[in-house]
Design goal:
8 strands; single chain; binds iron/sulfur cluster; alpha/beta; about 20% strand; two-stranded antiparallel sheet; six-stranded mixed β-sheet
């Protein structure tokens, strides 16, 4: 049996074994989560289009494809994309290969690492750099600890490891971070007016919304990441064995019980009340979907 490990699935496993089990073993998808993810995809699509030399309007249209039907998200996307283009109007698009899918063997238990790299570019010195687009609700101020946490970002370590596995020596990561707006449409404000207000706010205080930072890759960080991933794979194999031997299939996959993690967990509507999901018992608002839907891309490394 081949198991695909992505940055998403590994993060999920480290945060909560039960949530990993539901999402990546049982393939239990929340309907709302699919909608929430689409905003990130929409913003990525707009950024990619900018890198291909499209105008702001064209890039926005490319992004809108991913959030068709969600008018408030469309208004937010419009405000942010116009704001982004204004913020970086003097910075030419970075020439990149975008949305590159990778897959390579890890370890001896049938695990493969897989994922999709946002962008791979070469700087003026000819070095390969990863380009990572991120949207966050946290502050992107230079003093924010958001930047410190990025250093041990397992997604980037996974991408660097994938590049090395395919013979591409990556030296740096450029993080291109956009802060999601905290402003919302006011009562009786139209969505067009809200989009314009957000755009103007982005233009008035661009450093509040947009930040870029270049980070050098450290080999010690990469080594620590590989060790951690290998241990996680061993644990997944062991938990599957336990699962097959128990009456309640999900019981070996432990609940983290951490308030902060549970608060944002897509399964908290039933898990926190002691209920369990299975193929015969799918909670309402969920469906059995794909294990790693983010991997549907065309371009391979
Ligand atoms: S609600 Fe909490 S314990 Fe349950 S799956 Fe989610 S994160 Fe894990």
């Amino acid at each position: 049996m081949i198991t695909i490990i992505t940055a998403t699935s590994l993060s999920k496993f480290l945060a909560c074994q039960r949530a990993y089990y539901y999402r990546h073993e049982l393939r239990l998808n929340a309907i709302e989560t699919a909608e929430a993810l689409s905003f990130g995809r929409a913003f990525h699509a707009a950024m990619e289009s900018r890198n291909k030399g499209m105008t702001c309007e064209q890039a926005l249209a490319e992004g809108m494809i991913h959030i068709a039907g969600n008018e408030q998200a469309a208004a937010t996307l419009s405000g942010l994309v116009y704001g982004y283009f204004a913020r970086y109007k003097d910075d030419p698009p970075i020439e990149t290969r975008s949305e590159i899918q990778f897959s390579h063997k890890i370890g001896k238990n049938g695990f493969r690492a897989a994922g999709v790299i946002d962008g791979l570019a070469q700087n003026s010195a000819g070095e390969f750099v990863l380009l990572e687009y991120k949207t966050t609700s946290q502050s992107v101020d230079p003093s924010s600890d958001y930047w410190a946490r990025l250093r041990s970002n397992l997604q980037v370590n996974m991408y660097v490891d994938a590049c090395l596995a395919h013979g591409i020596e990556v030296s740096k990561v450029i993080y291109d971070v956009t802060k999601k707006p905290s402003i919302r449409p006011r009562q009786e404000e139209t969505l067009e007016a809200y989009a314009l207000r957000l755009r103007e706010d982005c233009e008035k205080r661009p450093e509040f919304y947009f930040a870029r930072r270049e980070v050098t890759i450290l080999h010690d960080d990469l080594h620590a990441f590989r060790t951690m991933r290998k241990e996680a794979c061993y644990q997944i194999v062991s938990l599957r064995h336990r699962s097959r031997r128990t009456g309640r299939v999900c019981s070996p996959w432990l609940c983290c019980g951490q308030q902060q993690t549970c608060n944002f967990c897509e399964y908290n509507s039933f898990c926190l009340y002691g209920a369990e999901a299975s193929t015969q018992n799918i909670p309402s608002g969920f469906y059995l979907g794909e294990r790693n839907p983010e991997l549907k891309q065309n371009s391979n490394i």
